[in-house]
Amino acid sequence: MTRVRYYTATTLDGFVAAPGDSLDWLLSRDVDPAGPMGYDGFIAGIGAIVMGGATHRWLAAHLAEAGGPDGGWPYAVPCWVFTRRDDPPAIPGADVRFVHGDPAAVHPDVVAAAGGRDVWVVGGGDLAGQYATAGLLDEVTVSIAPVTLGAGARLLPAHVELTLREVARNGEFCCARYDVVRP
Ligand SMILES: NC(=O)c1ccc[n+]([C@@H]2O[C@H](COP(=O)([O-])OP(=O)(O)OC[C@H]3O[C@@H](n4cnc5c(N)ncnc54)[C@H](OP(=O)(O)O)[C@@H]3O)[C@@H](O)[C@H]2O)c1
Ligand 1 centre from 68 Cα, in Å? Predict the structure, then answer.
């Protein structure tokens, strides 16, 4: 059965980006994508992805650092981007549809596109919080970088009760996977 998974890196004090949307605190760190709770194993189980407009704009502007091996769109599965903007950046080769409003409205389409695999809520915290509030989020997995920032884009700005399921160390990161506790 498809699960909806928020999988992200975070600072120890719960920010997914520094003020101004910088990810400099993250991109230089030691991590093994093929290692414990790493990206390679995670993405193999993903059939569709969703992200907020700010995350999409960041990706569009940083394809050289965070894009695929050819510097292009890094994902091979369909993507939904939540934005109210009329002119989101176009990224060549990206299988993206731009939507707005309640995530529940498009959820059946996202799950159908996932084809039995899981849905990745890429982030940021704004959109992940909406998924949690709508009762659509099943799992939160964080890779905690050894840094605090004091300010930035928040990890998950909602009240979400969690049950710890798995922990691991990967390079510089402390990784933890939680199930969302349904009310
Ligand atoms: N550490 C990590 O691994 C990681 C992971 C993901 C993201 N990030 C970073 O986090 C930062 C962004 O996080 P964030 O929480 O500020 O933003 P976000 O969730 O990526 O995007 C929020 C924006 O998306 C649009 N949006 C959100 N929900 C919507 C809805 N239901 N309908 C229509 N539009 C909606 C709105 O802006 P518009 O209408 O103006 O588009 C909103 O301001 C970026 O710097 C990104 O790179 C880091």
Answer: 20
